[in-house]
Amino acid sequence: MNDVASDLPRRALSVRQPWAWAIIHGGKDIENRTLGSIRSGGMETGRICIHAATGMREEEYRWGLYKLQQVGVTAPHPAELVRGGLIGVVDVVDIVSESGSPWFGGPWGLVLENATPIGPFPAHGALGYFEWVRTEAFSPALPWMERFAGGTETGALFPDLEPSFRGAPPKPFGG
């Protein structure tokens, strides 16, 4: 482990992409959770690492792309998103059941400040807060990620345009 990784908080929270990226790079200041997951996961205030989870289904990414666009943020192409590693650190400053943040979707949320990118460093993830362990490699891009053409009706024809949607894509479970 290099010096930078040894100075990181030992606790981490695994977040699915593109939400992990949005926390570190897109201004996402709330991580939505249920009260049960907050309690069972030992979540409390303090400085933690953000771990980009290994899982990301195409319908989750499409929904995330749409929701990010609603707050003026464009996520990277799915094949460019790190999965299976630590990507940043944040301060969890509060746990709330209401918020005026456009990122709040409830029912509860961890209020995040001071997002700082790191590494990234490959690491195993787990549910709730966990003590991270460094691994050898990130999760490789899946075939759907490599062939993804913007996720919109015109994405394949005009890949340099901002994503546009006629309406919201189907909401995946838990999204």
Protein described:
There is one protein chain. With 175 residues, this protein is of the alpha+beta class. It has one domain. Helix content is 20%, strand content 29%. The protein is built from five helices and seven strands; from the N terminus they run αβαβαβαββββα. The protein has helices spanning 3-6, 19-25, 35-40, 58-70, 143-147; strands at residues 11-15, 30-33, 46-52, 85-96, 108-124, 129-131, 133-134. Strands 1, 2, 3, 4, 5, 6 and 7 form a seven-stranded mixed sheet that branches. The longest helix has 13 residues, at 58-70. The chain is globular, with a radius of gyration of 16 Å. It starts with a helix and ends in a 28-residue tail after the last helix.
Shape field: globular
Q: How would you sum up the major sheet? A: 7 strands, mixed
Q: State which percent range the strand residues make up.
A: 25-35%
Helix/strand order, N-terminal first: HEHEHEHEEEEH
Helix content: 10-25%
- State the separation between the terminal residues, measured CA to CA: 34 Å
Query: In DSSP terms, counting alpha (H) and pi (I) runs of 4 or more, how many helices?
Result: 5
Overall mean pLDDT? 89
Broad structural category: alpha+beta
- Total discrete domains: 1
Rg on CA atoms, Å: 16 Å
Report the strand count. Answer: 7
**Uncertain stretches:** none
